[in-house]
Give the backbone structure.
Amino acid sequence: MTRIEFMQGNTACAEGALAAGCRFFGGYPITPSTEVAEHMAIKLPKLGGVFIQMEDEIASMASIIGASWTGARAMTATSGPGFSLMMENIGFAVMTETPCVVVNIQRGGPSTGQPTMSGQGDMMQCRFGSHGDYSVIALCPASVQEMFELTVKAFNLADRYRVPVFLMGDEIVGHMRERIEIPDQVERWERRPLAPGELPFKAGPGLVPGFPQFGKGFGVHVTGLTHDERGYPCATSPSVHEELVMRLVAKVETARDEIADYEVVNPDAGQVFVTYGSPARTVQQVIHDRKESDVGHLRLKVVWPFPESALKKFRNARRFLVPEQNMGQIAREIERHTDCEVVPIPKLGGALHTPEELESYLEAGR
Amino acid sequence: MSYEDWFREDRLPHIYCVGCGNGTVINCTLSAVDQIGWKREDTVFVSGIGCSSRAPGYILTDSLHTTHGRALAFATGVRMANKDLHVVVFTGDGDLAAIGGNHFIHACRRNIDITVVCMNNQIYGMTGGQGSPTTPSGAISTTTPYGSSEPPFDLCELAMAAGANYVSRWTSYHVKELTRAVLAGLETPGLSFIEALVQCPTNYGRRNKFRQVMDQVEYMRTHAMLLQKAHRLEEQGEPVPADTILVGEFARRNRPALGVRP
């Protein structure tokens, strides 16, 4: 039986994690993500799981990686400054192919910025913030319902591709309260265990190796150093490093279309809004208020890897309008993939774009 | 089973310098793990970065070689998520007390059921001999070319004050005592901290008048004093020399611990 509730976005995120089988949460309080941790602190012990408040975000990220290697579905939640602190260990998770989920309820930055106001300024940090070359997956919920659903999806993608997966919410979606339908059961894609005789870091055609869970007798050595297919450090071999890093990138990039998740509205339109997260809500209002269906909307639920083929769904598009709570981080990414005019609509300060603001951009492009 | 059965032989030769004390500490630790009867599949070795932290790579169990200073935070996740696993952390003075200092005191405060073995060579060995938080005052390193002007940490005092259940210090000369100390640490619920002073001929010794490996081992032997003896001297009003290395058991207690199997 589906349960219907009225819930805050951050709580819905925690509920999604619990439904997905998350049984370890390591975190450090930071506004505006704290309700995720608080809800996990209430619920996890009752389910036999572990909630631990670590000494900082660096330790939080480390703890979920450690927990993940014992087979647990593990998560942390943070916001901008904490996210920055996690970056080194996020790179470690990429290098060691550790499935884990990092929730970032974005606020205004840089630095301490606007703790209680919304922002989307961490989209590039999420993609490129750690050192070296890599590729990750980032999901962007635009409603309380999606805070639940995309958190579940984040765990599934993390296990399937063995990468850290980011739930890149924003303060508005984290703190808004809405009706939500919580299903009895959710879909689960498990990690594939390492087969007997298989090398722990040798991947087949799927590019994702089997997972040698700690405590199962695999005797696996896991290191952030460049390692060979046995997992042994091999940091000075150009070919081993190149092969490893290229596979780590390729396993996500080649699955781009499979991971892609987006919503297409009015595909014949000439002017098309592209959104992710809360700005989608203003665009939905604008389209709702219009008499004609002459405005398109591409709403991205997955931002990384960027689903460039989604842009081609709009065959008559001449302008992509991109309202973001930053100065155009994803607008620039869209420019890389289209010949159409791309119009960034930046909004800083924490408030949502208003319908009038977006209308004025449509008028200008008529 | 013998402790030699814990070695990952296909990784040899190891990367440690000739005369390094870390091998002794690994041997002592594996002897203790073997004596307590833990199984390889139930035991996880975790480490951060540095010479000490390469140790898990030479052991046949599941092992996690993590980021600089963060071993205890990773180990906390492993231990809390699966209380059936035994967790031993190898770390060094720079890894544990400098970049990892905050994780160290909080792991001790939580008194999480982990055994921490610190190979303290009083210098950054792998990075080429820079000063660490335990470099003795006046000692020469590449970043203290005129002698270290900062007072060093006493890691055992730190662990005790922060709340660890078991704390002891020995040196790579005291092989039997060190093995017994690690064993006691493995047996004690809560955080056990065993500090092992080790010689580093390559980066500490040659800059600090220990030209031969045995010179530094001999120094540790002759300057080590049992805690009990030092306390006796103090009670008698006799001075304990400033360059004394206090060895022995600093704490064995039963404060509430985290991550202990129910």
